[in-house]
């Protein structure tokens, strides 16, 4: 990770450690970088945070001042920006979003011309420009100054693309959608309505401050209750920028990213559409998922945490399905990044084509108990390097043996240390999470 750019773009609290000056300079650099040999063509989308408008205008000012032409998708999803970039030959795309973070945070995600996350070496150059380590970029003048175009049509084409992916109509299916008061509010219901579903929607009234607030994929209990109260067949919850999806079955049970990978992996294999007979996961995936894959004869690979690493593995090896327990799922036949709405369409395909309920499709998987605690700390690196804490982690791993595992890592986007234990019993999970978390607190690393 760089000084400003983490695993998922440049993220921080609006006007605190992510400012309009930062956004302006990002725009200035990108407009110049992609405009060296031709007039740069760059598309921008944003989520529903109050500060997204502020950052949009700052980026536009920087881009056009460097001579780039800018196309505005307005409120849209991150995967829609990826789709528009790669299908309509833009030099790059920018998504203004902090994903599942609270409304006062925001972020700048830069997407390259292939629809994937920007290369690390270019991010480093942007950081150097922000810090004044490279010479000032010239301003465009006269007819070379860039222009801005309303490009809502690009978002509409993305909606049409999603609809075209469905293999059959959703007629008579009662589907619940939790749009997290975010980007999905502008798209998801349109897609499901067009496919004939009886669509029931919650949290689709963004006010700039309620994005992800007690709703969406990070607060799925709201959708669980909604599905049960309305007797729905299935429910889907998205995060703020709709690049992830969690589901709820007809009984109100949570169907996380691991279970979605199982349902879709098994279905794709039965259709002869699982390249390499392999699903790509991260080290956060549950031990129960791997047991279920073993029984089905499905191979799997494990990457570091982050859809970036899943995507890299899939591209390198030609795999068609991969994702994270958190709901970032990639179907490489249709997209190059995680796409929450696309994921919900593929789950619907598995349900409809197999004439089964989602509850029945997930039955073969026994998920091991898991406990994850996030500790907000003053300095992530100091925690990771502390010998007493490392010894506590080692002790936990040795005592659990083959009956459990611990993951101890820093968040790539927030000042958090994540301590996760997965084991055969909930008591084991709590015992060993507490062992490490208490050590972090005793050493004075916790931020008050």
Describe the protein's topology.
Blueprint: E1 5-6, E2 9-13, H1 20-33, E3 41-46, H2 50-65, E4 69-75, H3 78-87, E5 92-96, E6 105-111, H4 120-130, E7 148-150, H5 152-165, E8 174-178, H6 188-194, E9 198-202, H7 221-230, E10 234-238, E11 245-248, E12 254-255, H8 257-270, E13 278-282, H9 287-296, E14 299-303, H10 307-317, E15 321-323, E16 329-331, H11 340-354, H12 358-361, E17 370-376, H13 380-385, H14 387-400, E18 404-410, E19 416-423, H15 426-442
Parallel strand pairs: 3-4, 3-5, 4-7, 8-9, 8-10, 13-14, 13-15
Antiparallel strand pairs: 1-2, 2-6, 5-6, 10-11, 11-12, 15-16, 17-19, 18-19
Structure description:
The protein is α/β, with parallel strands linked by helices and 448 residues long. Helix content is 39%, strand content 21%. It is built from 15 helices and 19 strands. Strands 1-2-6-5-3-4-7 form a seven-stranded mixed sheet, sandwiched between helices. A five-stranded mixed sheet has the order 9-8-10-11-12, sandwiched between helices. A four-stranded mixed sheet has the order 14-13-15-16, with helices on both faces. The longest helix is centred in the last third of the chain and has 17 residues. The model has no long low-confidence stretch (mean pLDDT 95).
């Amino acid at each position: 990770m760089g000084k400003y750019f983490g695993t998922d773009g440049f993220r921080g609290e609006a006007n605190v450690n992510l400012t309009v000056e930062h956004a302006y300079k990002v725009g200035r650099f990108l407009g110049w970088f992609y405009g060296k040999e031709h007039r740069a063509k760059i598309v921008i989308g944003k989520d529903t945070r109050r500060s997204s408008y502020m950052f949009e205008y700052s980026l536009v000012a920087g881009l056009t001042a460097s001579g780039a032409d800018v196309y505005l998708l307005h409120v849209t999803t991150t995967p829609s920006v990826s789709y528009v970039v790669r299908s309509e030959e833009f030099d790059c795309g920018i998504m203004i979003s902090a994903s599942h973070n609270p409304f006062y945070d925001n972020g700048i995600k830069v997407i390259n011309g292939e629809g994937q996350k920007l290369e690390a070496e270019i991010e480093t150059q942007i950081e150097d420009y922000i810090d004044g380590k490279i010479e000032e970029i010239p301003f465009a003048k006269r007819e070379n100054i860039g222009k801005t175009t309303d490009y809502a049509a690009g978002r509409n084409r993305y909606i049409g693309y999603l609809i075209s992916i469905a293999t059959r109509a959703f007629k008579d299916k009662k589907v619940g959608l939790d749009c997290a008061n975010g980007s999905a509010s502008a798209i998801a219901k349109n897609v499901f309505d067009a496919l004939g579903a009886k669509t029931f929607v919650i949290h689709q009234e963004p006010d700039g401050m309620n994005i992800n607030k007690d709703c969406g994929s990070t607060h799925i209990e709201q959708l669980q209750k909604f599905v049960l109260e309305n007797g729905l067949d299935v429910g889907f919850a998205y995060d703020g920028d709709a690049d992830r999806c969690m589901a709820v079955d007809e009984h109100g049970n949570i169907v996380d990213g691991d279970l979605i990978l199982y349902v879709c992996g098994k279905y794709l294999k039965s259709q002869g559409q699982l390249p390499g007979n392999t699903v790509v996961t991260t080290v956060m995936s549950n031990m129960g998922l791997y047991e279920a894959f073993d029984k089905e004869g499905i191979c799997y690979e494990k990457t570091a945490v982050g859809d970036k690493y899943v995507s890299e593995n899939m591209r390198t090896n030609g795999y068609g399905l991969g994702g994270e327990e958190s709901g970032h799922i990639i179907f490489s036949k249709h997209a190059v990044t995680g796409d929450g709405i696309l994921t919900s369409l593929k789950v619907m395909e598995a349900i409809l084509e197999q004439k089964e309920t989602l509850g029945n499709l997930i039955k073969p998987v026994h998920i091991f108990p898991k406990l994850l605690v996030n500790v907000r700390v003053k300095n992530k690196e100091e925690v990771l390097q502390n010998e007493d804490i490392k010894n506590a982690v080692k002790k936990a791993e040795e005592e659990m043996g083959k009956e459990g595992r611990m993951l101890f890592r820093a968040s790539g986007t927030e000042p958090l240390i994540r301590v996760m234990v997965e084991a055969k019993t909930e008591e084991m999970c709590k015992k060993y999470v507490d062992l490490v978390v208490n050590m972090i607190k005793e050493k004075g690393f916790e931020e008050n």
